[in-house]
Structures are given as structure tokens and as C-alpha cells.
Amino acid sequence: MPFGYLTLSSYLFQRSLPGRREEFDFAAEFAEKFTDLNGFWPVPVALLLFVVLWWMTAAWTRIALLPSAPVAFVGLLAGTSWEKSVLSVATPLVAWGLAWLAAKVVSWPVTGDVRRSAVEVLVGLRGGGRLRVQSRRLLLDKLPPPRHKEAPVGRVAIRFDRIGHVEAGFVHSPAQWRFGNTSELTITPGPVLRIIGGGQQWLLPVDDVETVTRLVLARAKVRAKADPRPPLESPRWANAKKLWGLSRSPPMQPNQQKVKHGMHHVMLVLSVLTAAMAGYAVFRAFTGSWSFVFGALIFGGVSYGVARGWASIGAALKLAEENPHSPLADDPDPR
């Protein structure tokens, strides 16, 4: 989409020139834009993120906006005609739509190949919330705000290797269901999916409950992989232990503020950018002056430190999502 935007911008510019108009070669212009990044770093960063997160279909739309939104924003500011403005607005919208469509194509319908694969399948819940059937775990996000404002996570997760019970059923009257992070979901009458594991019990209002049940059981059988927890003395348990204390105490007042997730991923982008600068400094050290070695060391050190911080924060949050209750507690009785 960014290269398509640049190609159409060149066409609009040529068409606005006075005098005789030559025939515009869209293919040649697109090929020229595609092969000349001209230092536009969002494109390689987006490609790198897609290579790393190819299985996380929920992230595809945001990755698609990374290179499309900046060029559209600049084009909107410098728009010289209504056509350029419409093109600037349409570029990120089309990029988002194509990424959303691609995610739907690879994950639905839920065939046997999809059930056994690592690709993420998104399932909407009645009344809000979303179940993400991932490669190694089930993740619940888009939940209502936690009842406690101090809750460190707004999501909960169960690893496939810790699932002990999966059951499809039916609920006849509405009720409130509280999850381990103190978020409460309204269970409306209709089919539901019950999952027990990792000290948690979920009751999920899912319309196509039979399909989702087969998906969870098949992927748990094929994709389950043991992931030993760190010792309870590890500092990685800080967020999880905070959540254990909150779950046992009633909130003083209802909370309407959602937990912001993914802010630490900015550190990953910063690490990638500084790593690229360190690589350029190394290149200049061999082709130019050896003084660039100091730049390589500085940018390399910053990149490594920021990457370590990103990994540490992500591991602590993931541990809290998967362990909203103490691992010493038993699973709820399915009976």
C-alpha cells in the first residue's frame, strides 16, 4: 500500500502539470518505488515484525498501518488537491482492510489444517470479549475493565499443556462471570464453552461452540508444550503476586479504566532502530573512518539494553496473564 500510494501520487502530480501529458507507466513507476526505499524505515520494520509475528493474526492490521499511516499523514498535510487528500485517507484504510481480510482467509473456516497449525484464530464472545486461540495457549482479551484499578493485566490466558477440562454446554439465564484478573463478563443465555486449567475456570459465551470446542481440543493435543514456571522467588512473579492479592479483596469502587497493553512494544521498535543504526556504523567503520566504531558500540549497547528490558517486561506480564491465581492452588472441580 505505501508503494501504491507513492505511485498514484506521482500520477496525480504528472497529471497536474501543464502542457502535453505523456502516458503514465504504472508498472514501471511502481517497480521504481518498490525497489527504492530511500531510507523509509517503517517498511523493513513492518516486514521484520511480520516475519516474527506471522502466526499472530490479531497483529496483522497494526503491522499494516506501520508503513501506510506515515506516508498518508504526510500526504494529507501536503495535499494539493482533493484527490490527493482522498488518496491519503484511503491508503491506511485499505491497508487495514486487506490485512484483516488476509487474517480471515488463513484462519476461517476452521478446517483440520487450521486446527493443527500455529496460526491464531479469533473468536468473538457474546456481550464483549474475544478468545484468541494461539499457538501455545488460549488468550482472553477485550474484556471489560478489571474491577480493581490496580490490576496489572486486563487479559487472562491458559496454556494448552495446563488444560484439564473442556466442555460445551448451555446457559438459560444471564449471569456475571469473574475471571482471574477481576474482569467480569456478562454471560447471556445461549451456548457456552467451559474450560478449566492453570487454576482457572472460564465460562465463555460462544455461538459456534461445537467448532470452537473441536479447535481447542485438537490444538491442545497437537500444540501443547510444557513451559516450566520460574521459582516463586523470581522477580518475574511481581505482577502475578500483586494480582493474587487483589483477587481476594473486594474493590472499594467500580473501575472504568482499561489496562493498556502493548506499550512495552515501543521498546522493541526502538531496539530495532538502534540496532540498524549500529549496523550502519559498523559498515561506515569498514568503509570510512574507524571513529564510527564508538557509534556502533553506543547504539549496539542501547539496542541490547532496551531489548532486554522489553523481554523482561513481556515475560512478567505473560506470567501474570497465565497465573492470575497462585500455581500452588488446585484446579476447580469439573463436577
Shape: globular
> Order of strands side by side in the largest beta sheet?
1-2-3-4
Helix content class: 40-55%
Q: How large is the share of residues in beta strands?
A: 5-15%
Seen as an oligomer or otherwise, the chain set is single chain
Number of strands: 9
Radius of gyration: 24 Å
Instruction: Report the structural category.
Output: alpha+beta
Residue runs with pLDDT of under 50 for 5 or more positions:
none
**Could you report the average pLDDT, rounded to the nearest whole number?**
87
The H/E string reads HHHHHHEEEEEEEEEHHHH
Quick structural overview:
This protein has 335 residues and is α+β, with helices and mostly antiparallel strands. The protein is 49% helix and 14% strand. Helix 1 crosses helix 2.
Keywords:
globular, 335 residues, alpha+beta, single chain, 4-stranded antiparallel sheet, 14% strand, 3-stranded antiparallel sheet
